[in-house]
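haha ok so turns out i had the wrong file open the whole time. this is the CORRECT one, sorry everyone. sequence first:
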Amino acid sequence: MNNLENNNSTHDYKTEFLEIFNQYVTRPGKDRLLDWISKTDFFTAPASTKYHCACEHGLVMHSISVFNVMMEKHYDEETDNIESFAITALLHDLCKANFYKVSTRNVKNEETGKWEKVPYYAIEDAFPYGHGEKSVFLIERFMRLKIDEAMAIRWHMGGFEETTGYAMSQAYEKYPIAVKLHLSDLESTYLREKHTSMVD
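then structure:
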C-alpha cells in the first residue's frame, strides 16, 4: 500500500493491521493489548482532525502505512528486529485512540450562500498525558517494550513535539530505530497519504 488514495470502505484495514501484528509480534501481553485496543475506537478513528487521514479508519490506515515505509526504506535484516518495527510502527499513535469525537459546525455554502451544518473531528482527550509518552504508557500497561522501542515511540514526532532538545537528540543518536520511525512517519504523513477529510 504505497498510497492511501481515498477512504476505501471496502478495504478491511483492521484485518490488515491484525495480520501484520500477529505475524510479527509474539511478545507476552500482546493478546491483552489487542483486546484493549479492540474496545477503543482505534480501528475507526481518524489520524488527525484535518490533516493526514482525517477520515474514518484514518488512524489504522496511517499506522499500516508507516509500517510499510519503515520496511521498504529502513529495514536491515542484519541489524534490525522486525518485531520491533511492527510494534513501533503499528502502535506509535495508540495515544489517538479515544481521542477524537465527531462534532458539527456551521459552514457557509459558497454556491447557495446558506449556512449548513457539516461534520468535523474535534479533540476530546480524556487522558491528557502527552503524545509519544502516552502511547508508551498505554502499551506498557499490557506488553513490555524494549528500551529502543520505547524511545522510538516517545520521540516519533521529532521537532513537532512540544518538548524536544537534548533528550530527543540523545535518543536519536543512541537508537537508530527512533530515527527510522520518525522518518517513516514523516514520509507517510506528507508524501504518501492523501490529506483526506471526512467532508471531502
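Residues 1-8 have pLDDT under 50 and may be disordered.
again sry for the mixup
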